[in-house]
Amino acid sequence: MIPRYLVDVDINELPQVHIEVMVIGAGIAGLFTAIKASEKYKVLMVTKKSLLDSNTRYAQGGIAAVISDEDSPAYHRQDTLIAGAGLCSPSAVDVLVHEGPEGVKDLIHMGTQFDLENGEFALTKEGAHSQRRILHAHGDATGAEIVRALSEKTKQDPNIEIWDDHFVIDLITEDGECLGALVQKQDGQKVFVKANATILCTGGAGQLYRYTTNPDIATGDGIAIAYRAGALIQDVEFIQFHPTALCYPGAPRFLVSEAVRGEGAILRNIKGERFMEKYHHQLELAPRDIVARAIVNEMEETRSTFVYIDFTHESEETVKHRFPTIYEFCLNYGLDLSSDWIPVAPAAHYMMGGVKTDLYGETEVRRLFACGEVSSTGVHGANRLASNSLSEAIVFGRRILERIHQLKPLEQTDVTAVNNRRTEHAQQPIVEKKLKLQKIMLRYAGLKRTAIGLQKGYDELRRQLSIFDTCLTKREDYEFANLLTCALLTTQAALIREESRGGHYREDFAEKDDLLWRKHTVFSREHGITEGHIDV
């Protein structure tokens, strides 16, 4: 069993810091929520790298919100529910589509500059959206613009203290209530940060897979520490693989945005044949899981490691204007988006599941909240609709503050010592362990899954459990322990769900089964796995 705490310390002997609101992680969720919280509270932001390092920075497509007169919350709701393949919470989706526009106004007020055309927002369309409702910035650098604006505002805010390059090892709880967190500083010193409210904004777990669009920091920390603290973990079998990540020797798996297909790009196999008509009536704009599996099928049939995305019908001027970041990045590797077919392949991109929350971002553990990709609010269901992730972060960030306003101050309590007396140190280098884990996940719990493969992967992962009996001291130790926790939960959930739905595809159960499986998979560290019901 995964232990309650990763390290042995006596909390009562550590230095203590008291704060009203602690935000763990940056990205749009952390930055936005910290700024909103700072209007009334003293806030501490703890990031394991810096404010500028997060998945948000790499978000190209944009943020989905009902802005146009031709659009409506009802249309946005329908598109989200269809993409979510029957597992969305309708009430959570209602919150998103109705409150998203106000959240966008907040972003603008905080300094985000979205692209305009003729004095109005330049809206684009992405896969599985029925209307143009995606706001973007600098063409295809929306995430970077949001992070720029919010981080500048955060740094200037006198009510926000920022601890860069600090690592949250575990949440400290007593009687089902979160009291704060155990934090390791740059020099290895540990400190107990006591907080009236603790908000996890730690992002996803893209580093579970060898090929991912996520940065190195996406190691599932929030999900793992919340699980150890007693929160519920929901629907982690649903991993979204982005269909079109650059696949070229020497280049990282850089995202070639869905918006490129939204603007008319087509997919071709290595024979030059357009193939999406074989798989879905929406062609290249089908839901991501369908496009990703179609690409894998074509790669297998043609014995290739990639397919091509073809945007050569557009002029060089248009391509440079609309997708400057992608254009420049590809050019660094001798590829011209306006005249070359660009080699792409699927890569792990987004985790639909995460820490289960209510409609105000609160978890099963009192005073503990989750926001952004780390959370499972019910918005995304089995497959996230493109550009709904940034919207979700701001909508639920606003709602978390509503709940925090209702909290009574944390009473003074004695914390039970965290002490298991581990002495042994890990033998195998962590970098080797991590690579082995990533290969297991890619092979057995990737885009296509079977019971035999998942069981084999789960059994191989369990052999790594001895890491929890060793004395962990470094950041990479904690990150691996967190990744292993997420990998075990993901493979177990995927093994249990005997159907195919959204981002979870079982070759041995290729059909969706609403009769048996229109329900959530929910893990609790103390009580194991349970089944959650959809609110209809």
UniProtKB/TrEMBL annotation:
In terms of superkingdom, the source organism counts as Bacteria
Identify the catalytic residues.
Answer: 288
**Residues covered by the FAD-dependent oxidoreductase 2 FAD-binding domain:** 21-390
Q: Where is the Fumarate reductase/succinate dehydrogenase flavoprotein-like C-terminal domain?
A: 436-526
Q: Which cofactor does it need?
A: FAD
One Gene Ontology cellular component term attached to this UniProt record is: cytoplasm
Question: What's the EC number here?
Answer: 1.4.3.16
- Describe the task this protein carries out: Catalyzes the oxidation of L-aspartate to iminoaspartate.
Know the name of this protein? L-aspartate oxidase
Q: Which organism is it from?
A: Paenibacillus foliorum
Q: Which gene encodes it?
A: nadB
